[in-house]
Amino acid sequence: MEFDYDLFVIGGGSGGVRAARLASAEAGQKVGLAEEYRMGGTCVIRGCVPKKLMVYASHFPEEIKLAQAYGWTVHAGSFDWKQFRHHLHAELNRLEQIYTTNLEKAGVEIHHQRAVLKDPHTVELDDGTTFKCRHILLATGGAPSFPPLEGAEELGISSNDIFLLDELPESILIIGGGFIACEMACILNGLGVKTTIFLRGAQILRGFDDEARGHLADHMASLGIEIHCGTSIIEMVKVDSGVNVRTSTGHQGTYGKVLFATGRDPSTKGLGLEEAGVKLGRNGEILVNEYSQTDVPSIYAIGDVTGRVELTPVAIREGVAFVETVFHGRPTPVDHELVPSAVYTQPELGTVGITENEAERARDAGGEDFEVYATSFRPMKTAFAHTDDRVLMKLIVGKESRKVRGCHIVAPEAGEMIQLAGIAIKMGATKEDFDRTCAVHPTMAEELVTMKSPVR
Ligand SMILES: Cc1cc2nc3c(=O)[nH]c(=O)nc-3n(C[C@H](O)[C@H](O)[C@H](O)COP(=O)(O)OP(=O)(O)OC[C@H]3O[C@@H](n4cnc5c(N)ncnc54)[C@H](O)[C@@H]3O)c2cc1C
Ligand SMILES: NC(=O)c1ccc[n+]([C@@H]2O[C@H](COP(=O)([O-])OP(=O)(O)OC[C@H]3O[C@@H](n4cnc5c(N)ncnc54)[C@H](O)[C@@H]3O)[C@@H](O)[C@H]2O)c1
């Protein structure tokens, strides 16, 4: 068969862009890529990047309060959302252009339109053009999902909409207790929006270490964020000042906006997967093997659309491993073990490895026993300002192996700290390796190498 492309990538997000660039520039393949919205995908346009810039913006009121305690005569004044949004989008445009230019420089042919599969070797663009492709990589990511509640999509907004708001509401109700719910709650609260969270479960951030979740929830509440656990929304009605909401617990209230942060669905609708014979899992994710290959040998999938670990660095690594496997003849399975991550709340939660609960379950199932080292303290910077802010550092250590199997940090800049702890833990460091590492003083992170006795 004659092919138009050695590789065609559908989706110009974190995973797709990296795979396309490497396959073209390093492996010398003829590569095409289709992006239906904006180059850079979720992370650059409506995820990590604009979110982190909003995190920075939201920190200033607390910093200014601290500055006052340190002797500065400063006042927060007011926040100009429109000015910030203008600057934010100028920055996103700049990044989008860089992504496009880098792909072009690498020799990738970009098609700025939607693409779908026709068969195992054919893609079709929106304008009807078809291409024969030796390999096809699906990197279409995911999109916010709304619960099946009447009015949710019409009256509610998703994280996509936050970055485009004309003005910040006076109040917001956030539904959900995951990454996006907690980050957006801290951001919007920091920017002066009265913020309430409703979540179904008993605590925010299911799946994270229980002690870390409790510590963070307390801190978020102390900042003025109202968190209602065990609460589901059952009715939404549009009113002049926003949306009136009724809950399963009998609560009724009106909020300027209602943000659904209730998870994301893999973007597979109308992609032609059935026609091509690609199989989906229970949550609509594309099923792949350890090399990101689907059941159809010429079709691979990476990133959020595969529902494995939904993080940008993971999508990128899956893209790199795909190119190694398919174009360099070096079969490279993707390593999803011990992926560090951070939730950019106030303060941040950094985590790598197992939680105390997981360690308990593993032990009860006949696995290794474990020790918990933990400390909670008032950090020097904010203690000076007489705030009650506390930091939590926690290590889960294998009792026999002595390996540090989990690390959980709730602290300002925990994302930066967990990146470095993650290296040691990925290398298999033991508690004694941590102990013989000299502290850097005075820092918060020094507690990671000075915890002497297990607390449990
Ligand atoms: C609010 C938010 C904050 C986040 N913060 C972080 C963070 O701090 N750190 C982190 O690691 N991760 C974060 N994430 C997750 C991260 O953004 C994703 O894991 C990552 O973007 C996944 O990359 P991807 O390549 O799989 O897909 P995406 O980046 O979603 O890219 C998929 C692309 O495919 C395009 N597309 C879809 N279908 C088609 C089609 N048929 N034809 C053509 N184009 C198509 C889409 O328009 C999109 O541009 C965040 C996500 C959100 C929503
Ligand atoms: N800092 C980061 O790295 C970062 C930030 C944002 C997002 N992400 C990635 O994006 C993914 C998606 O984030 P997310 O916050 O949308 O998902 P999530 O899975 O973290 O949270 C979804 C929340 O919605 C709740 N929920 C689901 N259905 C519901 C319903 N019908 N009614 C009420 N509540 C419901 C869940 O219980 C959960 O609390 C994350 O898993 C993460 O991998 C990462």
TrEMBL record:
The active site is at H441 (proton acceptor). The keyword Signal does not apply. Gene3D superfamilies: 3.30.390.30, FAD/NAD(P)-binding domain (3.50.50.60). It comes from the Bacteria. Pfam families: Pyr_redox_2 (PF07992), Pyr_redox_dim (PF02852). NAD(+) binds at G176, G177, G178, F179, I180, A181, C182, E183, G263. One of its GO terms (cellular component) is cytosol. Binds 1 FAD per subunit. Residues 339-451 form the Pyridine nucleotide-disulphide oxidoreductase dimerisation domain. Its cofactor is FAD. Signal peptide: none annotated. Disulfide bonds join C43-C48. Residues 5-319 form the FAD/NAD(P)-binding domain. One of its GO terms (biological process) is glutathione metabolic process. FAD binds at K52, D304. Keywords: Disulfide bond, FAD, Flavoprotein, NAD, Nucleotide-binding, Oxidoreductase, Redox-active center. One of its GO terms (molecular function) is flavin adenine dinucleotide binding. This is NADPH-glutathione reductase.
